[in-house]
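FORM 7B: Structural annotation worksheet

SECTION A. Query
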Amino acid sequence: MPRPKQTEDGLTKFQRYRQRQQRRGMKQVRIWVPDPNRPEFAAEARRQGLFLRGRAEEAEALGFIGSAFEWPKE
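SECTION B. Predicted structure
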């Protein structure tokens, strides 16, 4: 793998970008999330959906999703 090209200040383009973002008050965050393309994802989503069916938490979750997402008109 080729090494990133360094400039006169000794920093790579990405390092300068990170410094610029930090000066703007931004913080880099890296997270791992479930891969929706894996078969286990669909099975777990179904399991959790069935667990919530008919419970008060289901209405709360659907209310939150409804307020955060505009559904297409059919």
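SECTION C. Observations
Residues 39-52 form the longest helix (14 residues). Residues 10 and 16 are 10 Å apart (CA to CA).

SECTION D. Sign-off
Analyst initials: ____
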